[in-house]
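Supplementary Text 2. Reproducibility record for the structural model of the 90-residue chain.

All settings were left at their defaults, and a single model was retained for analysis rather than an ensemble. We include the record here because the model underlies the residue-level annotations in Supplementary Table 4.
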Amino acid sequence: MKLPETATLEQARVLLEQVDAALAAAGGAPVVIDASALRDFDTSAVALLLEARRRGMRANVAVQLEGMPPKLVELARLYGVDELLSLPPA
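Retained model, structure tokens:
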């Protein structure tokens, strides 16, 4: 699943619907969320990724994050959720 350029609170509901669809279609295989296209985002992008991980755990499907922009990684570290998102140590 590839995230769009923009991931703000306005897009969160639609993006979570896409996460749910990807988890349902995964058949137990890991779902990869590619965040490399993100350019315009706010803290709700971090919340979106955390919720995707939670929904994956409930569905017994691993959710892997790839291509995290440095500013998004910085936000995750600022809020202390980098370990929850399985980001590499600073």
